[in-house]
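TICKET #2291
ISSUE: user wants both folds in one file
ATTACHMENT 1:
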Amino acid sequence: MSNSKSINDILLCDDNERLEHLIQIFAKYQMAGKRYEAKAWHAYFRRIAINPVIFYQHNATLFYEDNQYDHETFQVMEPTCIHGDLHIGQFQYYFDDVNNERVLRMIHHKKIIAPFTWDLKRLATNLVLVAYYQGFSDTEIIEILHVFIRQYIKNVTTRTGKINLCRKYSDKNEQYNQLKSCLSHRQISVIGSTPIQHNMHDIDWKKLDTVASFIIFAEQFAIVVANSHCQPPVSISPTQYLIENNAEHCTHVIQTALSSKTQQQELINDICLFSMIYAEIAERDHRLFFKHFRNERIFNGINVLNRTRIPHPLADARSLSILIVGGGIGGMATALSFARAGIRVHLFEKKEEFGEVGAGMQLAPNCSRLLDRLGVLKQIQSNAVFPKQIVWMDALTGQRLTAIDLGAKYIEAFDYPYIVVHRADLFDALYQACLENSLIIMETNRAVTSVDERPKSVMVECADGTRYDCNMVIAADGLWSSLRKFVCDDGAP
């Protein structure tokens, strides 16, 4: 999809073109670094796919990618300091016991330099989506938008006095304490400072089920946004006039852009038109996202375009008692342990054939004891080396520091010798023992893509679509395990 499309062009483009654009944005921003982590993808998908409102609130990057090329009738000549990601989720409220009224506050103060209309567009679109969700008519939605924008215009164009209150406290070394006191008294937000502690509440937009209640909130949103734009949150600094000049500049830019009735009406028309159109776009984006990614185990990016339907028939799950994933030394030793106890097990290996590479391994007596119980020690010892000593030496000088004798007394003390064996010889002994045991079923070319814990079992799905309902799943797929992330997604080893 072209990066220079207007909002109307986006609305009219076909679904495949829009889906490709969504995938590019998600791959570049939202899923960067996590696109192949199943747990991260599941968490992200389920968080934002609930409904179009939540989807929209979590996708500021997509919004601004679309918005930057839109053609506006209302022109802002100079950018100013704005929030940057304004939506209903950025607000909370508390009850003022003195005035017995609800007071809104922004809970997250982001700050970017951009046209002030961007904040209005983003929040207005969110209001439209909520109104859609509540089943309001277009006429009712336009009424709510008009109230929101007119209240914003009223607040920014009639704003006087507050900036001058800050100026008189900006004298050199006294600025910090006196200005902080002034701001606290006026309850102007300052990063890192909360003047008064209140019991804050999230806004439950699902309860905005009447036009009257919605209009009340729309007015309050407008007031808070106007205050934020004209007195943006900044860190207190000893630099003289920093805060007041910043606030003066922001207020001047907005008031200049809205200095005439014609300009004010253009803003109202533009915000209403944009938010109504973009709400439809956001609703479609949510539908495309949900439809095409619901069956994805990981974020496959552009590959999802080749799988617009479920990639395989949903087969009934096969019941297994114990499944071991990983056909290496650890997996086969575990399988033999279960089989020696009379328990049937399945073992999956993702490669096309079983095999092992690597160097030698030192096996202490406890390891030999286990291999003896598994019935493979004699075969392993036939290819092993029995060292006489373990010697510790200084790495820099080569001087001998100490040694442990591994002869008869050592074997007498621990029952088994200390041996050195090649990894491939150890693997081959375990592999032959597994082949000969009727309680062990081994399968190759079985790549596990999903593990979901259920109340009474564990559901495993392979790359070919086969599913297994297991009583127990053991991940023995090595250092770079693909199953570990389903239990503890702690990144690379």
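ATTACHMENT 2:
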Amino acid sequence: MKSDEQFSRIIIGINKNIIRILISIMTVMLILGTIQLIFLEFKKITNPPYLLIEVSTLVEVFNLILIIAVGYELIKALLLIISSNTIPTVPIIEISIIAISTKIITLDIKQTNSNVIISLALLIAALGLSYFLLKFCKASQNKA
């Protein structure tokens, strides 16, 4: 029994260190992505016509901003996993909803197959239902 607990602690420690490495890599990528976003915007507004941004550039910038925001949310989820002894399902579902919503916001409807749109709608519905059920079950357990 004692060796099983010790083995489990070692494996959990290794996994937490792997997650710490992933968080470090993602943080560096978020910093580089933010620098790229700033550089891209500076380059666009300093080229003629000055201080004017085209719609296609706005879409590109919004995509980058949303990707950076999703990366930040993913880092928060990984930090929650490290700091918790259990997997925090509700925050992970919230982050999943944010990520899928980001995909939907940046989706080019003209270039997208109807199957993709239906799949994303079903995925949002399933995540929303999961979120509702987890929150409802947790609220019911707290009342009991």
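RESOLUTION: both attachments delivered.
EXTRA DETAIL ON ATTACHMENT 2: Residues 2-86 form one domain.
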